[in-house]
Amino acid sequence: MKTIATRTTLLADHFYASLDARLQGMNDGPPVIRLDVGSPDLPPPTSILQALNDSAANPNHHGYQPIKGELALRQAWAGLYKRLHDVTLNPDTEIVTLLGSKEGIFHLSLAVLEAGDVALVPDPAYMTYARGAQFAGAQPVALPLRCENGYLPELDSIPAELLDHTRLLWLNYPNNPTSAVASLDFYQHAVDFARKNSLLVIADSAYTQITFDSFRAPSILEIPGAQEVAIEFNTLSKSHNMAGWRMAVAVGNPQVIKSLGAVQANASSGAFKPVVDAAITALNGDQAWLAERNATYAARRDLLAKRFTALGWEFDLPRGALYFWLRLPFGGITSVDFTNRLLETAHVSLTPGTVFTRSTSASRR
Length: 365
Ligand SMILES: Cc1ncc(COP(=O)(O)O)c(C=O)c1O
Fold this sequence. Notes:
By secondary structure, this protein is of the alpha/beta class. It is 38% helix and 12% strand. It has one domain (1-365): Type I PLP-dependent aspartate aminotransferase-like (Major domain) (Aspartate Aminotransferase, domain 2, 3-Layer(aba) Sandwich).
């Protein structure tokens, strides 16, 4: 009997799922310092926790919730875009809430790609962009991010015959894993490029509220008319220290938001009402704590930078996101072997760079 769909073989080796299992097996040994995943270690402020508790105490708050997300929640996300980016969003047509952006990122490919389409995926990148495309029967094609270009893709050097088959272009700034940032000029170029080549550009903005040294991360939707060709993912996971809460959003082009909502309506139901209420508090409440939290991250960044410099390791000082993209300073060992050895001998867990590179093909087959 054939019980397993072939497409699931594409998903067999999810790095963090395997790592979780491996770390569980190390539970009896010395504690492991986890620097491998961008899961904030600080809690959200008490006002958000209080909103969760108060709402959970209401006996009427335990049933199913609107799949598209409560209007007040969509309005709160619209408020964030107005406040941070001076972007006006229609909460009815241009916003859909998600159970974490990972879910939406994966489902987006099912919503917009046909079998055989190409999705341009940065290399390195967060792995779900490519996995979603593969699962939809489409082909993720690597768009190299090079250090000498500030880890921005060279859009103008993409071959025309590849663009003929391309439906999607993924972008993510501040970037995981390089921590590179993008300017409004770059986003203008990306929007022009998407218009010229009739493709959808997706900006994954998971880290726009984690920035340092007075840098402000723009939204692609700040570009006039961007909604015609772009959507953006955003999440409270990193911005508000709420990674476990699974609360995120997709905003922008109404047609795409509608089809993503249709996929989602069949795959999941709305978030737990207390989480919704706490998210509304997180989005509408006092935001001053974010600057303090970012100052904490900046101090940690500076400490690491000092140590890496002393060791002679090369890196770009991050202006956003949570990561150092480090070049191994010596040859003869792969990043996988290095991180394995570090875990076994020093009980420090890092992610090898190859995790961010291996799920795309270098060119169209
Ligand atoms: C670039 C990027 N996008 C999306 C996500 C997923 O975030 P969420 O917790 O909203 O699913 C992550 C998580 O690490 C990420 O690094």
